[in-house]
Design a protein that fits this description.
Elements: E1 21-26, E2 32-39, E3 45-51, E4 54-62, E5 68-74, E6 77-85, E7 91-97, E8 100-108, E9 114-120, E10 123-132, E11 137-144, E12 147-156, E13 159-166, E14 169-178, E15 182-192, E16 224-235, H1 254-272
Antiparallel strand pairs: 1-2, 2-3, 3-4, 4-5, 5-6, 6-7, 7-8, 8-9, 9-10, 10-11, 11-12, 12-13, 13-14, 14-15, 15-16
Length: 274
C-alpha cells in the first residue's frame, strides 16, 4: 500500500507516517481511490477524486494559510483547468501543467491589475494583455519569461504607442497614433537615469542572460529609463505601423511527449477498466 499524501502548493514531498485523516474510497490495495476527503498532517484539506493513491480528476485543495485550488489534478499535481485563490485575494483561472501555470489563463492581481494571455512554466509568455488598473493603460503584445519582449501596443486614453519592447521597456523605432488621425514616428533610447543612485551601477545592464527563478526580480532594468526622440508627424496610415505582435512558437519537448503518452494510457485504462 502506498498511501502517501503530498503536501503543499508546489507539489508534494512524500509524507511519512502519519498520513492524516481520510474518509473515502479505496482500491484493492487499500490506496485512496475514487472520491475522498483528507485532512493532512499540516492542516491542509483536500476533497475530491483520487486514483491509485494520488489526487486525480476534480478536487478542491484548501491550504491552512487561506489559499485554495479548485480544479483538475493529475498524479497528485495541479494539471488541466483550475482556479487558484491566494491569501491576498489574487486569483488565477486557466490552464495548469504539473503544478505550474501553463497555457492560457487570466490572473487578477490584488491591486486591480489583470493579465489575460499565455503562460509558460509559471511566467507570462507569448501573446497577452496586461491592464494597469490605476492608470487606465493596457499593454497588448508579446511576453517572454514574464517580461514584455518583442512587438507590442501600449494603449493610453486617447492615444497609443506601437513598437518593440525589451525587458518591459520600449526600445528602438516606433510610433504614437492619435485617434487614428495622426501618427508621430520616432524611436526610444534606453539610457541610465541621471537621478539614480549609482552605488553598484556597474552591474546595471539591459542584457539579462542569467537564469532566474520565479521569486527573483523580473521588473524593469534598474536605473534605466526610456527616452522618446520624435522624428516626424504625418497623417495616419495603417500600413506605416510597426509589425503586429505574433504568438511565440512552442517547441515540443521530451517531457511533453511523455505527458501525451501518459494521457493516452489513462484513457485506455478508463475505457478498459484495467
Amino acid at each position: 500500500m502506498s498511501d502517501v499524501e503530498e503536501v503543499g502548493e508546489g507539489g508534494e514531498g512524500a509524507e511519512i507516517y502519519p498520513y492524516g485523516e481520510y474518509e473515502g474510497g479505496r482500491d484493492e490495495n487499500l490506496d485512496r481511490h475514487g472520491w475522498g476527503s483528507a485532512l493532512l498532517p499540516n492542516g491542509d484539506i483536500y476533497e475530491g477524486n483520487y486514483r491509485r493513491g494520488l489526487r486525480m480528476g476534480k478536487g478542491l485543495y484548501c491550504f491552512r494559510n487561506g489559499a485554495r485550488y479548485d480544479g483538475d489534478w493529475r498524479k497528485g499535481k495541479k494539471h488541466g483547468i483550475g482556479t487558484f485563490v491566494y491569501p491576498d485575494g489574487t486569483t488565477y483561472t486557466g490552464q495548469w501543467r504539473k503544478d505550474l501555470k501553463h497555457g492560457h489563463g487570466t490572473y487578477h492581481y490584488a491591486n486591480g491589475d489583470t493579465y489575460e494571455g499565455n503562460w509558460f512554466r509559471n511566467f507570462r509568455h507569448g501573446l497577452g494583455t496586461y491592464s494597469y488598473n490605476d492608470v487606465n493603460v493596457t499593454f497588448y503584445g508579446t511576453w517572454k519569461n514574464g517580461r514584455m519582449e518583442g512587438p507590442g501596443v501600449l494603449k493610453y486614453p486617447g492615444y497609443r504607442y506601437h513598437g518593440k519592447f525589451e525587458q518591459n521597456l520600449p526600445k528602438g523605432p516606433g510610433c504614437f497614433t492619435f485617434e487614428n488621425v495622426w501618427m508621430q514616428h520616432g524611436f526610444y533610447l534606453n539610457i541610465r537615469d541621471p537621478a539614480f543612485d549609482y552605488v553598484g551601477a556597474e552591474d546595471l545592464t539591459l542584457d539579462d542572460t542569467e537564469e532566474t527563478t520565479e521569486s527573483e526580480y523580473r521588473g524593469n532594468p534598474r536605473g534605466i529609463v526610456p527616452i522618446w526622440r520624435a522624428r516626424s508627424v504625418a497623417a495616419f496610415k495603417s500600413e506605416l505601423l510597426p509589425p503586429s505582435p505574433v504568438p511565440l512558437p512552442y517547441k515540443d519537448s521530451e517531457d511533453s511527449l511523455i505527458s501525451i503518452m501518459e494521457y493516452l494510457e489513462q484513457q485506455y485504462t478508463i475505457a478498459t477498466g484495467e
